[in-house]
Amino acid sequence: MAENSLSDGSPADSVEAAKNASSTEKLTDQVMQNPQVLAALQERLDNVSHTPSSYIETLPKAVKRRINALKQLQVRCAHIEAKFYEEVHDLERKYAALYQPLFDKRREFITGDVEPTDAESAWHSENEEEDKLAGDMKNKVVIAEKEAATAEELTPKGIPEFWFTIFRNVDMLSELVQEYDEPILKHLQDIKVKFSDPGQPMSFVLEFHFEPNDYFTNPVLTKTYKMKSEPDKADPFSFEGPEIVDCDGCTIDWKKGKNVTVKTIKKKQKHKGRGTVRTITKQVPNESFFNFFSPLKASGDGESLDEDSEFTLASDFEIGHFFRERIVPRAVLYFTGEAIEDDDNFEEGEEGEEEELEGDEEGEEEDDAEVNPKSLLSLLVSLVLKRASLPDDHVISKKPFGHQPLALSGCGEKLQK
User: Fold this and answer.
1) Domain final position from 292, 321, 336
2) Alpha-carbon Rg of the chain, whole angstroms?
3) Which residues contact 217 (CB under 8 A, 6 or more apart)?
4) How far apart are CA 37 and CA 48, in angstroms?
5) CA separation (Å) from 154 to 110, 159, 162, 316?
6) In the 8-state DSSP scheme, what is residue 346?
7) Residues 42 and 70 placed together within one structural domain of the fold
8) Which residue from 79, 94, 235, 261 puts its CA 20 to 30 A from 121's CA?
9) Where do runs of H (alpha helix) occur along 193-245?
10) Within 13 A of 102's CA, how many CA atoms are on the CB side?
């Protein structure tokens, strides 16, 4: 009977468990009463939970006062930087006037109003094979022109569909263009950028010049982008230069039945009393590039826009900036596709850097997830319990726990992994 009870292990197990619990409690008390262990644990917790803001909070008032003085200096730096960008805007205006004669000549070549001279049309390729091929093609063209002089009137004027081709080549623009927009954009002859006059609020205007067409009577469609180049009083440290804050379009004088920004739908209505049915027509908005000239307005009354509206407005600002900085100054390279290849290569480089940074950030997040103040205490308790399961001659050391560096440094190594 006694043997059975011992073999079952119930009384013996209970006694052994009680002894282990008692040993564990004693060891825990010994550990938690050791000032060296507590100091080491506190230091580790302080390192784990350290943030810049928490560090600042621990500084004396005199040091905080000096930090506030540095922030005052930083605000003054932001205002000087704003002045710098204002002068940059003045320089842009100055050099825009120097570029304009070249852009005017570009328009004349595109429209065919002026034919470039041999000197103006000479272009030397870096590839000799291309030069040779171009020479052979030129000879063939000369022969063909001599043989078909009577067909001279079939030669296209200028560079057909120049700007429309750019719209088609650039993804940011082609996404906005619908099939029914294309015939209209083929009448686009020029795009210009005009900067605000000296002394006026910073802004720029995009001018889209069209030849006479069957769609609207406006010779020029405009889009004005308003800019801000001063630190925000509520958050002056976020200032990084001029930013577009709002934009205005223009009214398009559509010819009858040619407005592509709306579509007419038919809807049947049933009379509740008589049961008769009638068909009504109504106009509803239609997707079109020409909605570009009827933009959303940035909220100026303190009310925030919804998420979709904010995204639409931000995309509009990005497109306006792209016209100003890239499309207009380098139009021929977007027509040939050379600038697009450069942009793609630049974006690939940025994406590679972003992926690398994201990988680093993920690693940091994993580290942060592992470095938890509670985990340190859990590791310490686990260590105590593990030691409690050892034979008695190993459980209670003659030396204080703080004199055994491997145990505590082992916790630290786990936290750092």
Assistant:
1) 336
2) 38
3) 253, 255
4) 16
5) 17, 14, 18, 40
6) H
7) no
8) 94
9) none
10) 11
Residues 305 and 328 in one domain: yes
Helices (H), 218-372: 307-322, 331-336, 338-370
Same domain, 168 and 311: yes
Residue 204 and residue 68 share a domain: yes
Domain assignment of residue 410, given as a range: 18-49+372-416
Domain count, the chain: 2
Element (H, E) at 110: helix 61-111
Token pair belonging to 118: 């041999």
Place of tokens 């908005």: 285
- Beta strands across the sheet bearing 188-195: 188-195, 203-210, 220-228, 243-248
* CA angle at 264 for the pair 258 and 266, rounded to the nearest 5°: 155
Residue 114 and residue 26 share a domain: no
- Tens-digit pLDDT profile for the chain (417 aa)? 444 444 455 566 666 666 666 666 776 677 667 777 777 776 666 665 567 777 888 888 999 899 999 999 999 999 999 999 999 999 999 999 999 999 999 999 999 999 999 999 998 766 655 666 666 666 666 565 665 555 555 788 999 999 999 999 999 999 999 999 999 999 999 999 999 998 899 999 999 999 999 999 999 999 999 999 889 888 888 888 889 999 999 999 999 999 999 998 888 777 777 777 787 888 899 999 999 999 988 766 556 778 888 899 999 999 999 999 999 999 999 999 999 877 766 555 555 555 665 555 555 555 544 445 445 555 555 555 554 454 444 443 333 333 333 333 333 333 343
- Residue reference for tokens 């021929």: 332
- Mind giving me the DSSP string for 40-84? HHHHHHHHHT--HHHHHHTS-HHHHHHHHHHHHHHHHHHHHHHHH
**Any domain includes 254:** no
State the maximum Cα–Cα separation within the chain, in Å, rounded to a whole number: 126
Tokens standing for 227?
């800019």
Q: How many residues does the chain have?
A: 417
- Enumerate the β-bridge partners of residue 282: 265
Q: Are 401 and 407 in contact (CB under 8 A)?
A: yes
- Give the pTM: 0.66
Please indicate, yes or no, if residue 270 is contained in any of the structural domains.
no
